[in-house]
Every structure is written in C-alpha cells, then in structure tokens.
User: Which sequence fits this backbone?
C-alpha cells in the first residue's frame, strides 16, 4: 500500500490514513484542526501530533465556547503546561481565535458554511505526482487567510491556512500514487 511520503512515524501514518484530507463538515473538528495548525506554525506536524491529547485536555476538548472564555489566569496556567507548546502568542491567539470562530458561526450559521464557501462546497481535487509539486500556499489560501485576519483570527497566514485546507479536506493533496487519493476524489 502506497501512501504520501511524509507519513513515516506511526502517529503520522495513523493521521494520514484516517484524517488528513477527509472533508470536515463538523465545526468542532474544524476548530480543533485550526487550533492545532496554528500551534504547529514553525514546528513539525509530528511535534503537534505527539502533543495532541495534551492539547485536547489543556484546551477543553477543543470546545470553542470554552476556549473563548479562558481568562488570563488560564493562559498563565497553560504557559506552565509542559504538554503543549508554551508560546504565549500562540496560546493567546487560540483564545482570540475561539472568540472569532464563534462570531463566524453566529454570522454564517456555522464555521463550515463559511469555510466551505471558499471552495464552492466541494474539495479541490489536485493530482500531484510528487510532493515537490504540492504548494506551501496558494492564492486561495492567501484570500482565506486575509479574510480570517479581517475577522479577528491570528497565527493563520497563507501557509498555515493551506495546511488547514489540506487537513480538513478542502483540498485533496494526497499524491495520485497514494491509496487515499482515489478514495477522496470525486467519484473515487
């Protein structure tokens, strides 16, 4: 069975085979992926996968309403939590992003309504033959990142947003040689 070359560690293989690129139409899962992608900025994805359960505990099960209510004392406690990335700006961004996420939900009915509109409701189907062809960002991810920023989100630039689009299945960036590509393609 062939899979995308980046999935080497058992945690990466599990994530690749079961989550990466699967269209996410659940707001709480969208929020989880946004939080994890934001935390990952500048780090390896494996670093975040190894801490994912710690993040789940530290950030109230990725419930946006709970994270939006985090007060400064909770931020200080998170700064002492060795199970997550202890970067104050990333932690504060997670709280601000939760608040912005709730505003998007209120305005659009759901975060999924908002984000899926950027791809007309269907995943973009790419047909990359090598990982060298996969872009780090696209004009679409730049547009989405700019819109998110205008709505109060931070730590979500074009590259991080593209990683989110890949993770949440807004784009199918599995290589054509990967067993997941046809499963996640239209008609596949």
Assistant:
């Amino acid at each position: 069975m062939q899979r995308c070359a980046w999935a080497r560690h058992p945690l990466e293989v599990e994530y690749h085979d079961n989550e990466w690129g699967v269209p996410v139409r659940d707001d709480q899962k969208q929020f989880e992926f946004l939080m994890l992608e934001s935390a990952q900025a500048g780090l390896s994805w494996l670093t975040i996968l190894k801490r994912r359960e710690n993040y789940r505990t530290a950030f109230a099960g990725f419930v946006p309403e709970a994270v939006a209510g985090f007060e400064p004392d909770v931020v200080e406690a998170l700064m002492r939590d060795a199970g997550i990335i202890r970067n104050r700006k990333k932690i504060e961004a997670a709280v601000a992003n939760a608040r912005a996420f709730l505003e998007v939900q209120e305005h659009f009915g759901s975060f999924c309504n908002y984000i899926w509109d950027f791809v007309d409701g269907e995943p973009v189907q790419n047909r990359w033959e090598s990982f060298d062809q996969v872009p780090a960002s696209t004009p679409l991810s730049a547009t989405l990142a700019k819109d998110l920023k205008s709505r109060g989100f931070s730590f979500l630039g074009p590259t991080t947003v593209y990683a989110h689009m890949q993770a949440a299945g807004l784009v199918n960036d599995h290589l054509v040689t990967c067993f997941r590509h046809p499963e996640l393609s239209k008609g596949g």
